[in-house]
Amino acid sequence: MSAALKIAFRNILRHKVKTLIIGVLIAIGITVLVVGNSLMDTASRGIERTYIESYTGHVVITGRHRGDLSLMGLEAAESLDVPVPVIPSFDEVFEHVTSQPYVKAVNPQATVTALIDIGESRFFTQAFGIDPAYYTRMFPDNIEILSGRMLAPGEEGILVGAEVASILERNGDVEVAPGDTLLLTAMSEHAGIKVREVPVVGIFRFKQSNPVLDYVSLIDITTARALAGMNLFSVAPAELTEAEAALLGEIDESALFGGALDDFFGGSFVEEVEAPGGALDEEALLAGLGPASPESGLLEDAFASDRSNAWHFLLVRLEDGVNPAFAIAQFQRFFDERGIDAMAQGWLTGAGSVALLATGTKTVFNVVVLVIAVVAVIIIMNTLVISVTERATEIGTMRALGAQKSFIRRMILWETVLTSGIFGLIGAVVGLIVLWILGATGIEAPNIFFEMLFGGKVLHPVPSPGAIAASLFIVIAIAVAASLYPLRIALKTPPVKAMQE
Amino acid sequence: MRIRAWDSVSTGALRAAWLLGKAWVLAAAVLIVAASGASAAQPDLVAILRAIDEQSNFGDFDFSAVLTIITQDPEKGTEKFVVREFRRDRENKFLLLIQEPKARMGEGYLMDEENLWFYDPESRKFSHTSLKESFAGSDARNEDFTQSSLAKDYRPTGYESGSLGNFEVYIIDLEAAHNEVADPYLRIWVSKDENLILKMESYSLTKRLMRTALFPNYVKIGSAIIPRVMVFVDELVQGRRTQITLSEISLNALPDSVFTKAFVERANR
Fold it and tell me: N or C terminus of chain A: which is more exposed, having fewer CB within 10 Å?
């Protein structure tokens, strides 16, 4: 053992009170770090595993879009104005993705928000439009069917989320059960109002759910396409008359109220039209409306949506050990090379706000830790400054007896490392005990916010070796950083002056 | 949360219905101002508002028209809707049938006293909601679907004389008399000779200009004068505005059957 280490150890024992003050601070800090980071890691891992295995897969392929697009749809404020994009050249994308050796399973999916009506009861659901064959292959064990059964391939129907069914039953004097018929209404700016009647095939719940997924139902893709208006994305440009076009462009109020429009409307600012004169005939009214017959193309459009292969998402599950970043890059390169306007993104994008909330909270926690670290540095530094100043005579004497600056530096650094190391370990052990207790009892989420954060109703934290190692490193680094200033003071003091003091 | 998102969905999807209702209300609001003396030095502003309200009411007449709604949006471009509107205010009924664009043709909004029914011509199914339920928490305003009540809802706070194009106008500032109206402050440009509202600015509580409405053409039918062309300029989103043109306006009596689901279905056969 070097002399510096010996003296450092002796100094720690000699200044028990000061050592204890610094040590307790360090121990508390590391306990907070270990527990906090382990909690966050457990929650993050839980959310990631849950989402990848149950909802998103590793890679989410979508049509090109701006803003955040999760499985729930566009998450921006203007999401009403903008339809969820379908994946262009879907067959080509599908064939390419499924032919890759690192792809384990795929699940094409669509999403639409719909009102559910049954009797006098009404609630909404986020409907995932699926092909049951792909869905069950990709997510073989993510749902529990409480009554009824899973959709059959090609069958039209809905699997209602248990929470949605429960709310519908609470809202009105109704019972939602397999065999019932529900009226689904979806509204959007681009497609208008779409209403579909579908039979209830079953009631289900996700085995791992959260307050957002609780509102999800599964419907057949044909109904989903019709509700989402997925056949109506290419709208012909508006054809305007001369009078209508006259109002486009910059508005000139002087011209508008100077007779600019009068020529279009009977030559005057106020035109007199025929006053009431009898009743209108229903047949005449109907004749004036013009039929929306199949010939008009409307119903053809509807059938086109049934036949189409439009999907919002292609979810991809990778083989074990495949790096999702690699697969994403490969897929994106393929899309770019073929000029396909599609995007490949990670599970987090598909998971949307819930998962982002968890990662965002972790960032906030890390910022809080940073603030605590700064405060800790100041306190530890202050205590060390006092400690070193009090020992100026001793240090001066050591210097006078021939101790080099490097010796003093080593001695104080050893003191710091020993103190922070020993108390850091104590703090880590306390943290582990706390985690063990919390892991055994579980932390119940007090509200929806924490449920989303925990990825479920109860969180059983698991100690994170990475978090413990990182916490110890951080605390020792903080302590060493904190010792630099007092060290500088000690070394700047001339030995003679130090001895005189 | 998706619940909030659904509110938005309702809001957006109802925008078409709202827009049409709004068009009607503004049509009703912007009527001839008969009570005020055009050449009076000190116009009776309250009397002007009262006259607007009185003449906004078509009484026992039914109303029908074709509304052409053109929306310009800096991002979405120009969109055109043609909608057939039937109204019977005395029974609180209306029917809106979309004629254009083709993709939306036949879609209907039937208001039957308490229920607003949506009709999907593809599935031939109706979906309903009560007005109270639908419009609470959305951007749409209940008063958008009711008669004008300027005299009751607003009090004049000042006026000045000015001109707008060929017209000499009173520019009247209005302040909401209670907090149940959508616009806390209004400024209206009323022509002195024919007593028509030519322009209306809507202000927020903080006196921020939210929307400008222009009425550059009118139609006189029976004893009422209503704007035939309306331009609504969104002052919050630059380049975004909506113009509504009324045609085939009629106050002829409509058959009772018009305000029924059966009529909506027949219209789509």
Answer: N
